[in-house]
Design the sequence.
Protein backbone atom coordinates (compact mmCIF):
# COMPACT_ATOMS: atom_id res chain seq x y z
CA UNK A 1 0.00 0.00 0.00
CA UNK A 2 1.50 3.34 -0.98
CA UNK A 3 1.34 6.56 0.98
CA UNK A 4 -1.77 7.83 -0.78
CA UNK A 5 -3.67 4.61 -0.34
CA UNK A 6 -2.65 4.54 3.28
CA UNK A 7 -3.95 8.04 3.91
CA UNK A 8 -7.23 7.26 2.21
CA UNK A 9 -7.65 4.05 4.16
CA UNK A 10 -6.87 5.80 7.41
CA UNK A 11 -9.19 8.77 6.81
CA UNK A 12 -12.10 6.67 5.60
CA UNK A 13 -11.66 3.78 8.00
CA UNK A 14 -11.33 5.88 11.14
CA UNK A 15 -14.45 7.93 10.49
CA UNK A 16 -16.54 5.08 9.18
CA UNK A 17 -15.68 2.97 12.20
CA UNK A 18 -16.46 5.77 14.61
CA UNK A 19 -19.83 6.53 13.07
CA UNK A 20 -20.69 2.84 12.78
CA UNK A 21 -19.83 2.21 16.44
CA UNK A 22 -21.20 5.31 18.09
CA UNK A 23 -23.99 6.50 15.80
CA UNK A 24 -25.29 3.64 13.71
CA UNK A 25 -25.05 0.89 16.33
CA UNK A 26 -26.69 2.89 19.16
CA UNK A 27 -29.32 4.17 16.73
CA UNK A 28 -30.21 0.64 15.68
CA UNK A 29 -30.23 -0.34 19.35
CA UNK A 30 -32.89 2.28 20.08
CA UNK A 31 -35.08 0.94 17.30
CA UNK A 32 -34.41 -2.69 18.18
CA UNK A 33 -34.93 -2.35 21.92
CA UNK A 34 -38.21 -0.49 21.42
CA UNK A 35 -39.61 -3.81 20.15
CA UNK A 36 -38.20 -5.92 23.00
CA UNK A 37 -39.68 -6.83 26.36
CA UNK A 38 -38.79 -5.04 29.56
CA UNK A 39 -36.58 -6.85 32.05
CA UNK A 40 -35.57 -5.71 35.53
CA UNK A 41 -31.99 -6.99 35.59
CA UNK A 42 -30.87 -6.93 31.95
CA UNK A 43 -33.11 -3.98 30.96
CA UNK A 44 -34.43 -5.72 27.86
CA UNK A 45 -35.09 -9.26 26.78
CA UNK A 46 -36.91 -11.37 24.21
CA UNK A 47 -39.60 -11.81 22.93
CA UNK A 48 -40.31 -9.11 20.40
CA UNK A 49 -43.44 -7.13 21.13
CA UNK A 50 -45.40 -4.10 19.99
CA UNK A 51 -46.64 -3.44 23.52
CA UNK A 52 -44.63 -0.26 24.04
CA UNK A 53 -46.00 1.34 20.93
CA UNK A 54 -49.46 0.28 22.00
CA UNK A 55 -48.84 1.86 25.41
CA UNK A 56 -47.61 5.01 23.73
CA UNK A 57 -51.03 5.54 22.14
CA UNK A 58 -52.75 4.68 25.40
CA UNK A 59 -54.65 7.82 26.53
CA UNK A 60 -52.37 8.39 29.55
CA UNK A 61 -49.17 8.52 27.52
CA UNK A 62 -50.71 9.83 24.32
CA UNK A 63 -51.54 12.86 26.40
CA UNK A 64 -47.86 13.39 27.20
CA UNK A 65 -46.97 13.21 23.52
CA UNK A 66 -49.82 15.54 22.65
CA UNK A 67 -48.84 18.03 25.36
CA UNK A 68 -45.27 17.98 24.20
CA UNK A 69 -46.32 18.57 20.59
CA UNK A 70 -48.47 21.49 21.76
CA UNK A 71 -45.57 22.97 23.73
CA UNK A 72 -43.23 22.62 20.76
CA UNK A 73 -45.79 23.99 18.35
CA UNK A 74 -46.57 27.04 20.47
CA UNK A 75 -42.89 27.66 21.11
CA UNK A 76 -42.25 27.52 17.37
CA UNK A 77 -45.09 29.95 16.65
CA UNK A 78 -43.83 32.34 19.35
CA UNK A 79 -40.27 32.17 18.03
CA UNK A 80 -41.50 32.78 14.50
CA UNK A 81 -43.69 35.68 15.62
CA UNK A 82 -40.84 37.35 17.50
CA UNK A 83 -38.03 36.26 15.21
CA UNK A 84 -39.48 37.05 11.80
CA UNK A 85 -39.92 40.81 12.28
CA UNK A 86 -36.59 40.87 14.11
CA UNK A 87 -34.75 39.13 11.27
CA UNK A 88 -36.52 41.39 8.80
CA UNK A 89 -35.49 44.61 10.56
CA UNK A 90 -31.97 43.25 10.99
CA UNK A 91 -31.68 42.46 7.28
CA UNK A 92 -32.82 46.02 6.46
CA UNK A 93 -30.33 47.68 8.82
CA UNK A 94 -27.42 49.61 7.33
CA UNK A 95 -24.96 47.15 5.77
CA UNK A 96 -22.06 48.13 8.02
CA UNK A 97 -24.09 47.55 11.18
CA UNK A 98 -25.39 44.11 10.23
CA UNK A 99 -22.33 42.03 11.22
CA UNK A 100 -22.31 43.56 14.70
CA UNK A 101 -26.05 43.06 15.18
CA UNK A 102 -25.81 39.47 13.99
CA UNK A 103 -22.89 38.89 16.33
CA UNK A 104 -25.06 40.19 19.17
CA UNK A 105 -27.66 37.54 18.37
CA UNK A 106 -25.02 34.82 18.44
CA UNK A 107 -23.20 35.83 21.66
CA UNK A 108 -25.86 34.63 24.15
CA UNK A 109 -25.83 31.40 22.14
CA UNK A 110 -22.28 30.78 23.28
CA UNK A 111 -23.20 30.65 26.92
CA UNK A 112 -24.68 27.45 28.16
CA UNK A 113 -28.44 27.36 27.77
CA UNK A 114 -28.54 25.95 31.29
CA UNK A 115 -26.97 29.15 32.64
CA UNK A 116 -29.48 31.18 30.67
CA UNK A 117 -32.33 29.12 32.08
CA UNK A 118 -30.96 29.66 35.54
CA UNK A 119 -30.85 33.41 34.89
CA UNK A 120 -34.58 33.23 34.19
CA UNK A 121 -35.14 31.44 37.48
CA UNK A 122 -33.50 34.35 39.30
CA UNK A 123 -35.71 36.84 37.49
CA UNK A 124 -38.96 34.99 38.03
CA UNK A 125 -38.59 33.73 41.58
CA UNK A 126 -41.27 34.81 44.08
CA UNK A 127 -38.64 37.04 45.68
CA UNK A 128 -36.89 37.63 42.37
CA UNK A 129 -36.21 40.85 40.55
CA UNK A 130 -39.47 41.17 38.60
CA UNK A 131 -41.57 40.73 41.72
CA UNK A 132 -39.38 43.08 43.73
CA UNK A 133 -39.81 45.77 41.09
CA UNK A 134 -43.56 45.17 40.79
CA UNK A 135 -44.00 45.35 44.55
CA UNK A 136 -41.88 48.45 44.91
CA UNK A 137 -43.82 50.16 42.14
CA UNK A 138 -47.03 49.30 43.91
CA UNK A 139 -48.40 47.52 40.87
CA UNK A 140 -49.10 44.39 42.87
CA UNK A 141 -49.68 43.88 46.57
CA UNK A 142 -48.22 40.41 46.85
CA UNK A 143 -45.68 38.52 44.74
CA UNK A 144 -47.02 37.14 41.47
CA UNK A 145 -46.20 33.47 41.08
CA UNK A 146 -44.40 33.25 37.78
CA UNK A 147 -42.05 30.36 38.28
CA UNK A 148 -43.48 26.85 37.95
CA UNK A 149 -46.15 27.90 35.49
CA UNK A 150 -46.74 27.09 31.83
CA UNK A 151 -45.85 30.65 30.91
CA UNK A 152 -42.45 30.26 32.56
CA UNK A 153 -41.78 27.12 30.51
CA UNK A 154 -42.65 29.02 27.33
CA UNK A 155 -40.40 31.91 28.28
CA UNK A 156 -37.59 29.41 28.91
CA UNK A 157 -38.10 27.54 25.66
CA UNK A 158 -38.33 30.71 23.56
CA UNK A 159 -35.32 32.18 25.35
CA UNK A 160 -33.20 29.13 24.56
CA UNK A 161 -34.36 28.56 21.01
CA UNK A 162 -35.01 32.04 19.56
CA UNK A 163 -31.57 32.39 17.90
CA UNK A 164 -32.16 29.10 16.03
CA UNK A 165 -35.18 30.76 14.43
CA UNK A 166 -33.56 34.12 13.77
CA UNK A 167 -30.41 32.90 12.02
CA UNK A 168 -31.98 30.93 9.12
CA UNK A 169 -34.62 33.65 8.66
CA UNK A 170 -31.96 36.33 8.52
CA UNK A 171 -29.98 34.27 5.99
CA UNK A 172 -32.86 34.19 3.48
CA UNK A 173 -34.13 37.71 4.14
CA UNK A 174 -30.73 39.28 3.75
CA UNK A 175 -30.20 37.63 0.36
CA UNK A 176 -33.60 38.64 -0.93
CA UNK A 177 -33.56 40.85 -3.99
CA UNK A 178 -35.06 44.17 -2.95
CA UNK A 179 -35.94 44.94 -6.58
CA UNK A 180 -38.61 42.24 -6.52
CA UNK A 181 -40.45 44.20 -3.84
CA UNK A 182 -40.03 47.43 -5.71
CA UNK A 183 -41.38 45.79 -8.84
CA UNK A 184 -44.42 44.51 -6.93
CA UNK A 185 -45.01 47.98 -5.55
CA UNK A 186 -44.69 49.57 -8.98
CA UNK A 187 -47.30 47.15 -10.21
CA UNK A 188 -49.67 48.48 -7.58
CA UNK A 189 -49.35 46.07 -4.66
CA UNK A 190 -49.89 47.43 -1.15
CA UNK A 191 -47.53 46.64 1.72
CA UNK A 192 -49.64 43.69 2.80
CA UNK A 193 -49.81 42.27 -0.70
CA UNK A 194 -46.06 42.66 -1.17
CA UNK A 195 -45.51 40.75 2.02
CA UNK A 196 -47.95 37.93 1.26
CA UNK A 197 -47.12 37.48 -2.42
CA UNK A 198 -43.41 38.31 -2.56
CA UNK A 199 -41.60 38.36 0.78
CA UNK A 200 -43.32 35.42 2.46
CA UNK A 201 -42.97 32.91 -0.41
CA UNK A 202 -39.33 33.87 -0.91
CA UNK A 203 -38.52 33.35 2.75
CA UNK A 204 -40.26 29.99 2.97
CA UNK A 205 -37.06 27.89 3.08
CA UNK A 206 -35.80 30.00 5.99
CA UNK A 207 -39.11 29.69 7.81
CA UNK A 208 -39.05 25.92 7.38
CA UNK A 209 -35.45 25.60 8.50
CA UNK A 210 -36.05 27.81 11.54
CA UNK A 211 -39.21 25.94 12.51
CA UNK A 212 -37.44 22.57 12.34
CA UNK A 213 -34.54 23.89 14.39
CA UNK A 214 -36.93 25.11 17.08
CA UNK A 215 -39.63 22.45 17.00
CA UNK A 216 -37.40 19.37 17.30
CA UNK A 217 -35.10 20.50 20.13
CA UNK A 218 -38.11 21.90 22.02
CA UNK A 219 -39.39 18.33 22.40
CA UNK A 220 -36.24 17.23 24.19
CA UNK A 221 -35.14 20.10 26.43
CA UNK A 222 -36.08 18.32 29.64
CA UNK A 223 -34.20 20.63 31.97
CA UNK A 224 -36.31 23.66 31.09
CA UNK A 225 -39.63 22.31 32.45
CA UNK A 226 -37.58 20.72 35.24
CA UNK A 227 -36.27 24.09 36.40
CA UNK A 228 -39.04 26.47 35.35
CA UNK A 229 -42.21 24.41 35.26
CA UNK A 230 -44.29 22.61 37.80
CA UNK A 231 -44.36 18.82 37.96
CA UNK A 232 -47.30 18.68 35.60
CA UNK A 233 -45.57 20.15 32.61
CA UNK A 234 -43.86 17.39 30.75
CA UNK A 235 -42.13 17.20 27.43
CA UNK A 236 -41.30 14.00 25.61
CA UNK A 237 -37.77 14.71 26.81
CA UNK A 238 -38.84 14.50 30.47
CA UNK A 239 -40.78 11.36 29.72
CA UNK A 240 -37.82 9.63 28.05
CA UNK A 241 -35.51 10.73 30.85
CA UNK A 242 -37.85 9.28 33.47
CA UNK A 243 -38.20 5.99 31.62
CA UNK A 244 -34.44 5.57 31.53
CA UNK A 245 -33.35 6.94 34.87
CA UNK A 246 -36.33 6.45 37.18
CA UNK A 247 -38.56 3.72 35.81
CA UNK A 248 -35.75 1.71 34.26
CA UNK A 249 -37.99 0.89 31.33
CA UNK A 250 -35.63 0.95 28.38
CA UNK A 251 -38.01 -0.44 25.75
CA UNK A 252 -40.72 2.10 26.55
CA UNK A 253 -38.23 4.99 26.57
CA UNK A 254 -36.84 3.73 23.28
CA UNK A 255 -40.28 3.64 21.73
CA UNK A 256 -40.77 7.30 22.69
CA UNK A 257 -37.35 8.07 21.18
CA UNK A 258 -38.37 6.34 17.96
CA UNK A 259 -41.38 8.65 17.95
CA UNK A 260 -39.00 11.64 18.08
CA UNK A 261 -36.86 10.17 15.30
CA UNK A 262 -39.91 9.61 13.10
CA UNK A 263 -40.96 13.19 13.74
CA UNK A 264 -37.49 14.32 12.67
CA UNK A 265 -37.68 12.26 9.46
CA UNK A 266 -41.14 13.62 8.73
CA UNK A 267 -40.05 17.24 9.22
CA UNK A 268 -36.92 16.83 7.14
CA UNK A 269 -39.02 15.15 4.44
CA UNK A 270 -41.37 18.13 4.33
CA UNK A 271 -38.41 20.47 4.26
CA UNK A 272 -36.77 18.77 1.31
CA UNK A 273 -40.09 18.47 -0.51
CA UNK A 274 -40.75 22.20 -0.15
CA UNK A 275 -37.22 23.31 -0.89
CA UNK A 276 -36.93 21.22 -4.09
CA UNK A 277 -40.27 22.55 -5.28
CA UNK A 278 -39.13 26.01 -4.35
CA UNK A 279 -35.90 25.67 -6.33
CA UNK A 280 -37.72 24.21 -9.31
CA UNK A 281 -40.23 27.03 -9.42
CA UNK A 282 -37.36 29.47 -9.18
CA UNK A 283 -35.49 27.82 -12.03
CA UNK A 284 -38.48 27.86 -14.36
CA UNK B 1 -42.44 55.88 12.00
CA UNK B 2 -41.61 52.53 10.41
CA UNK B 3 -38.02 53.00 11.37
CA UNK B 4 -38.96 53.46 15.01
CA UNK B 5 -41.04 50.30 15.08
CA UNK B 6 -38.00 48.45 13.74
CA UNK B 7 -35.60 49.94 16.25
CA UNK B 8 -37.87 49.29 19.21
CA UNK B 9 -38.63 45.70 18.11
CA UNK B 10 -34.94 44.93 17.73
CA UNK B 11 -34.14 46.60 21.06
CA UNK B 12 -36.84 44.65 22.87
CA UNK B 13 -35.55 41.33 21.55
CA UNK B 14 -32.00 42.23 22.54
CA UNK B 15 -33.24 43.26 25.98
CA UNK B 16 -34.94 39.86 26.24
CA UNK B 17 -31.76 38.06 25.20
CA UNK B 18 -29.37 40.01 27.39
CA UNK B 19 -31.52 41.17 30.31
CA UNK B 20 -31.53 37.94 32.33
CA UNK B 21 -27.79 37.48 31.82
CA UNK B 22 -27.08 41.03 32.96
CA UNK B 23 -29.20 40.60 36.07
CA UNK B 24 -27.35 37.39 36.86
CA UNK B 25 -24.02 39.15 36.52
CA UNK B 26 -25.02 42.15 38.59
CA UNK B 27 -26.33 39.95 41.40
CA UNK B 28 -23.08 38.00 41.50
CA UNK B 29 -21.62 41.13 43.11
CA UNK B 30 -24.47 41.47 45.58
CA UNK B 31 -23.61 41.04 49.21
CA UNK B 32 -26.94 39.47 50.16
CA UNK B 33 -27.27 35.73 50.14
CA UNK B 34 -30.72 35.84 48.54
CA UNK B 35 -31.24 37.61 45.29
CA UNK B 36 -34.01 39.80 46.65
CA UNK B 37 -32.54 43.22 46.84
CA UNK B 38 -29.28 44.99 46.36
CA UNK B 39 -27.29 45.15 49.60
CA UNK B 40 -24.04 46.58 48.44
CA UNK B 41 -21.13 45.58 46.26
CA UNK B 42 -19.06 42.64 47.38
CA UNK B 43 -16.75 39.97 46.02
CA UNK B 44 -17.79 37.47 48.71
CA UNK B 45 -19.20 34.98 46.26
CA UNK B 46 -16.10 35.03 44.11
CA UNK B 47 -13.99 34.36 47.17
CA UNK B 48 -16.16 31.49 48.38
CA UNK B 49 -16.21 30.11 44.84
CA UNK B 50 -12.45 29.68 45.05
CA UNK B 51 -12.88 27.61 48.18
CA UNK B 52 -15.61 25.40 46.78
CA UNK B 53 -13.51 22.40 45.80
CA UNK B 54 -16.44 20.43 44.33
CA UNK B 55 -17.30 23.22 41.95
CA UNK B 56 -13.69 23.75 40.94
CA UNK B 57 -13.24 20.03 40.32
CA UNK B 58 -16.25 20.10 38.06
CA UNK B 59 -14.75 23.05 36.16
CA UNK B 60 -11.47 21.20 35.67
CA UNK B 61 -13.31 18.04 34.54
CA UNK B 62 -15.39 20.02 32.08
CA UNK B 63 -12.39 21.78 30.63
CA UNK B 64 -10.48 18.51 30.32
CA UNK B 65 -13.30 16.78 28.49
CA UNK B 66 -13.89 19.81 26.26
CA UNK B 67 -10.21 20.14 25.42
CA UNK B 68 -9.51 16.49 24.65
CA UNK B 69 -12.77 15.81 22.84
CA UNK B 70 -12.56 18.96 20.72
CA UNK B 71 -8.99 18.13 19.69
CA UNK B 72 -9.90 14.56 18.82
CA UNK B 73 -13.04 15.60 16.97
CA UNK B 74 -11.13 18.24 15.02
CA UNK B 75 -8.40 15.82 13.96
CA UNK B 76 -10.78 13.06 13.01
CA UNK B 77 -13.34 15.38 11.44
CA UNK B 78 -10.69 16.97 9.24
CA UNK B 79 -9.73 13.53 7.97
CA UNK B 80 -13.40 12.75 7.48
CA UNK B 81 -13.89 15.90 5.42
CA UNK B 82 -11.08 14.73 3.16
CA UNK B 83 -12.57 11.30 2.89
CA UNK B 84 -15.81 12.85 1.63
CA UNK B 85 -14.22 15.45 -0.63
CA UNK B 86 -11.54 13.39 -2.30
CA UNK B 87 -12.32 9.73 -2.24
CA UNK B 88 -14.95 7.37 -3.44
CA UNK B 89 -15.63 4.51 -1.09
CA UNK B 90 -18.32 2.00 -0.28
CA UNK B 91 -20.85 3.38 2.16
CA UNK B 92 -20.09 7.03 1.43
CA UNK B 93 -23.79 7.86 1.15
CA UNK B 94 -24.46 6.14 4.46
CA UNK B 95 -21.59 8.05 6.03
CA UNK B 96 -22.97 11.34 4.75
CA UNK B 97 -26.41 10.43 6.01
CA UNK B 98 -25.05 9.63 9.46
CA UNK B 99 -23.17 12.93 9.63
CA UNK B 100 -26.35 14.89 8.97
CA UNK B 101 -28.53 12.70 11.15
CA UNK B 102 -26.26 13.36 14.14
CA UNK B 103 -26.60 17.10 13.57
CA UNK B 104 -30.37 16.93 13.27
CA UNK B 105 -31.37 14.24 15.72
CA UNK B 106 -32.60 15.40 19.13
CA UNK B 107 -29.88 15.39 21.77
CA UNK B 108 -31.92 13.25 24.07
CA UNK B 109 -32.13 10.40 21.56
CA UNK B 110 -28.38 10.44 21.17
CA UNK B 111 -27.95 10.53 24.94
CA UNK B 112 -30.10 7.49 25.64
CA UNK B 113 -28.75 5.55 22.65
CA UNK B 114 -25.18 5.96 23.89
CA UNK B 115 -26.28 5.14 27.44
CA UNK B 116 -27.74 1.85 26.23
CA UNK B 117 -24.63 1.10 24.18
CA UNK B 118 -22.27 1.70 27.10
CA UNK B 119 -24.34 -0.19 29.64
CA UNK B 120 -24.86 -3.16 27.31
CA UNK B 121 -21.16 -3.25 26.48
CA UNK B 122 -20.39 -3.14 30.20
CA UNK B 123 -18.39 0.09 30.01
CA UNK B 124 -18.42 2.05 33.23
CA UNK B 125 -19.80 5.58 32.80
CA UNK B 126 -17.28 8.31 33.50
CA UNK B 127 -14.54 10.20 31.77
CA UNK B 128 -14.16 7.77 28.88
CA UNK B 129 -17.84 7.53 27.99
CA UNK B 130 -18.20 11.29 28.23
CA UNK B 131 -15.25 11.72 25.90
CA UNK B 132 -16.65 9.33 23.32
CA UNK B 133 -20.06 11.02 23.42
CA UNK B 134 -18.62 14.51 23.06
CA UNK B 135 -16.36 13.52 20.18
CA UNK B 136 -19.38 11.96 18.47
CA UNK B 137 -21.60 15.02 18.62
CA UNK B 138 -18.81 17.44 17.69
CA UNK B 139 -17.51 15.40 14.76
CA UNK B 140 -20.26 16.23 12.21
CA UNK B 141 -19.84 19.98 12.76
CA UNK B 142 -16.10 19.76 12.09
CA UNK B 143 -16.66 17.58 9.02
CA UNK B 144 -19.22 19.97 7.53
CA UNK B 145 -17.17 23.11 8.26
CA UNK B 146 -13.90 21.71 6.90
CA UNK B 147 -15.61 20.04 3.96
CA UNK B 148 -17.09 23.39 2.89
CA UNK B 149 -13.58 24.85 2.90
CA UNK B 150 -12.05 21.97 0.93
CA UNK B 151 -14.84 22.16 -1.62
CA UNK B 152 -14.09 25.87 -1.96
CA UNK B 153 -10.46 25.70 -2.98
CA UNK B 154 -8.80 25.22 -6.30
CA UNK B 155 -7.59 21.62 -6.85
CA UNK B 156 -5.08 22.89 -9.44
CA UNK B 157 -2.84 24.03 -6.60
CA UNK B 158 -2.57 20.48 -5.36
CA UNK B 159 -1.91 19.18 -8.88
CA UNK B 160 0.80 21.78 -9.31
CA UNK B 161 2.48 20.71 -6.08
CA UNK B 162 2.33 17.07 -7.18
CA UNK B 163 3.85 17.94 -10.55
CA UNK B 164 6.68 19.61 -8.69
CA UNK B 165 7.33 16.36 -6.87
CA UNK B 166 5.53 16.71 -3.55
CA UNK B 167 4.36 13.51 -1.92
CA UNK B 168 0.95 13.04 -0.35
CA UNK B 169 2.33 13.84 3.08
CA UNK B 170 4.07 16.97 1.89
CA UNK B 171 1.02 18.18 -0.04
CA UNK B 172 -1.01 17.82 3.12
CA UNK B 173 1.40 19.55 5.48
CA UNK B 174 2.58 22.39 3.23
CA UNK B 175 -0.45 23.24 1.14
CA UNK B 176 -3.68 21.78 2.30
CA UNK B 177 -3.29 22.21 6.01
CA UNK B 178 -2.39 25.94 5.93
CA UNK B 179 -5.30 26.57 3.56
CA UNK B 180 -7.64 24.72 5.83
CA UNK B 181 -6.44 26.24 9.06
CA UNK B 182 -9.24 28.82 9.53
CA UNK B 183 -11.94 26.19 9.05
CA UNK B 184 -10.09 23.75 11.30
CA UNK B 185 -9.74 26.38 14.02
CA UNK B 186 -13.39 27.36 13.69
CA UNK B 187 -14.32 23.69 13.97
CA UNK B 188 -12.18 23.29 17.04
CA UNK B 189 -13.63 26.36 18.75
CA UNK B 190 -17.17 25.27 17.94
CA UNK B 191 -16.46 21.77 19.28
CA UNK B 192 -14.95 23.19 22.43
CA UNK B 193 -17.99 25.33 23.20
CA UNK B 194 -20.46 22.62 22.19
CA UNK B 195 -18.70 20.28 24.56
CA UNK B 196 -18.63 22.80 27.42
CA UNK B 197 -22.30 23.63 27.01
CA UNK B 198 -23.81 20.23 26.55
CA UNK B 199 -26.26 19.21 29.23
CA UNK B 200 -28.58 16.64 27.74
CA UNK B 201 -26.18 14.09 26.28
CA UNK B 202 -23.73 14.35 29.18
CA UNK B 203 -26.59 13.82 31.58
CA UNK B 204 -27.00 10.26 30.34
CA UNK B 205 -23.41 9.18 29.79
CA UNK B 206 -21.55 10.43 32.84
CA UNK B 207 -21.18 8.54 36.08
CA UNK B 208 -21.37 9.63 39.71
CA UNK B 209 -17.59 9.65 40.02
CA UNK B 210 -17.03 12.20 37.29
CA UNK B 211 -18.97 15.40 37.63
CA UNK B 212 -18.91 18.11 34.99
CA UNK B 213 -19.91 21.71 35.36
CA UNK B 214 -23.26 21.94 33.53
CA UNK B 215 -24.57 18.94 35.45
CA UNK B 216 -23.18 20.32 38.70
CA UNK B 217 -24.97 23.61 38.06
CA UNK B 218 -28.10 21.68 37.13
CA UNK B 219 -28.19 19.86 40.44
CA UNK B 220 -27.29 23.02 42.38
CA UNK B 221 -30.09 24.97 40.74
CA UNK B 222 -32.54 22.19 41.52
CA UNK B 223 -31.51 22.03 45.15
CA UNK B 224 -31.53 25.75 45.76
CA UNK B 225 -28.82 28.04 44.66
CA UNK B 226 -25.98 29.76 46.32
CA UNK B 227 -24.80 32.99 44.74
CA UNK B 228 -21.51 31.20 44.02
CA UNK B 229 -23.22 29.91 40.91
CA UNK B 230 -23.88 33.50 39.83
CA UNK B 231 -20.21 34.30 40.25
CA UNK B 232 -19.18 31.23 38.29
CA UNK B 233 -21.66 31.95 35.50
CA UNK B 234 -20.38 35.51 35.26
CA UNK B 235 -16.80 34.31 34.92
CA UNK B 236 -17.83 31.78 32.28
CA UNK B 237 -19.81 34.37 30.33
CA UNK B 238 -16.93 36.83 30.32
CA UNK B 239 -14.49 34.10 29.27
CA UNK B 240 -16.70 32.88 26.41
CA UNK B 241 -17.26 36.44 25.28
CA UNK B 242 -13.51 37.03 25.27
CA UNK B 243 -12.89 33.80 23.33
CA UNK B 244 -15.52 34.68 20.74
CA UNK B 245 -14.14 38.18 20.28
CA UNK B 246 -10.57 36.90 19.94
CA UNK B 247 -11.72 34.31 17.38
CA UNK B 248 -13.68 36.98 15.56
CA UNK B 249 -10.70 39.29 15.27
CA UNK B 250 -8.38 36.43 14.27
CA UNK B 251 -10.71 35.55 11.41
CA UNK B 252 -11.00 39.21 10.39
CA UNK B 253 -7.24 39.57 10.45
CA UNK B 254 -6.93 36.50 8.20
CA UNK B 255 -9.34 37.95 5.67
CA UNK B 256 -7.22 41.06 5.27
Sequence:
Amino acid sequence: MNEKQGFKFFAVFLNMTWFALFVLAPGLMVVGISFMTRDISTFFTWPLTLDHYRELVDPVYAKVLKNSLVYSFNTTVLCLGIGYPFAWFLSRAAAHRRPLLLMMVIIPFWTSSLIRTYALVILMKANGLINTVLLAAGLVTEPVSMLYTDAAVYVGLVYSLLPFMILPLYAVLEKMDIRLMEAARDLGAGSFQVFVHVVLPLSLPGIMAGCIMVFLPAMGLFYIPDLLGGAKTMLVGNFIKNQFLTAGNWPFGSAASVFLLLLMVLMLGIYFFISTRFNRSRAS
Amino acid sequence: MKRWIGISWVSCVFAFLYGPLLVLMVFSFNQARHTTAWQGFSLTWYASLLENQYLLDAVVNSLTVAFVSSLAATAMGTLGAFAIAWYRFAGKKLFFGLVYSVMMSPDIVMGISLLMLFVTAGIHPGFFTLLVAHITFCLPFVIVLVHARIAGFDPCVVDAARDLGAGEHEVFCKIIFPMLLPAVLAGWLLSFTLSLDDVIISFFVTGPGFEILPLKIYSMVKLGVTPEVNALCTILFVLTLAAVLVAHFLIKEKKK
Summary: Chain A has one domain: 51-283. The radius of gyration of chain A is 24 Å.
